[in-house]
C-alpha cells in the first residue's frame, strides 16, 4: 500500500478548510474524527499510512489515516490527530480525487507557514 495525496479545492479556500476542523498540527486531539471525501475511487491505503494535503500549489502536510469509509462510488479518508505540517520544494498543480505520493519522504521539510496562502 502507499501514502496518498489529496487537494483542497481553491474555491473552498484554505481558511474555510482550517476553520471546519480541529486537531491541527501541534494541537492535542479533540476526540473527534475528520473526513476527507473523495467522489470517486477508493485508494489502496492502510491505517497508519499518510494522507497528504495540497492547497494553492503547495504541500501543506499530512495526517495518519485511521480508516477508509466507503460510500457509493467514493469514500472518506478518516483521521484523528497527529497532523504534521511539511512541504516539498515542488509546485503541485491541484487535481480531483487522489494520487499516490511520488516524492521521497527524505525531501520533506517542516512548514511553519502552512496556514498562509
Tell me what you see in this structure.
- The chain is globular and about 35 Å long.
- It has one domain.
- It has one helix and nine strands, in the order E-H-E-E-E-E-E-E-E-E.
- The chain starts with a strand and ends in a 7-residue tail after the last strand.
- 6% of the residues lie in helices and 33% in strands.
- The protein has one helix at residues 14-20; strands at 4-7, 34-38, 50-55, 58-64, 67-71, 74-79, 86-87, 99-100, 109-110.
- It is mainly beta and 117 residues long.
- A hairpin with a 2-residue loop joins strand 3 (50-55) and strand 4 (58-64).
- The longest helix has 7 residues, at 14-20.
- The strands form three sheets. Strands 4-3-1-8 form a four-stranded mixed β-sheet, with no helix packed on it. Strands 2-6-5 form a three-stranded antiparallel β-sheet, with no helix packed on it.
The main sheet orders its strands as: 4-3-1-8
Pattern of helices and strands = EHEEEEEEEE
Q: In angstroms, what is the radius of gyration?
A: 13 Å
Parts with pLDDT < 50 across at least 5 consecutive residues: none
- Main sheet, how many strands, which sense, barrel? 4 strands, mixed
Beta-strand proportion? 25-35%
Number of domains: 1
Q: Give the % helix.
A: under 10%
Amino acid at each position: 500500500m502507499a501514502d496518498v495525496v489529496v487537494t483542497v479545492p481553491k474555491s473552498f479556500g484554505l481558511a474555510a478548510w482550517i476553520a471546519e476542523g480541529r486537531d491541527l498540527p501541534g494541537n492535542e486531539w479533540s476526540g473527534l474524527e475528520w473526513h476527507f471525501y473523495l467522489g470517486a475511487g477508493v485508494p489502496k491505503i492502510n491505517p497508519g499510512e499518510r494522507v497528504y494535503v495540497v492547497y494553492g500549489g503547495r504541500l501543506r502536510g499530512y495526517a495518519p489515516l485511521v480508516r477508509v469509509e466507503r460510500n457509493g462510488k467514493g469514500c472518506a479518508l478518516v483521521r484523528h490527530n497527529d497532523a504534521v505540517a511539511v512541504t516539498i520544494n515542488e509546485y503541485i498543480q491541484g487535481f480531483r480525487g487522489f494520487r499516490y505520493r511520488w516524492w521521497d519522504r527524505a525531501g520533506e521539510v517542516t512548514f511553519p507557514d502552512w496556514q498562509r496562502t
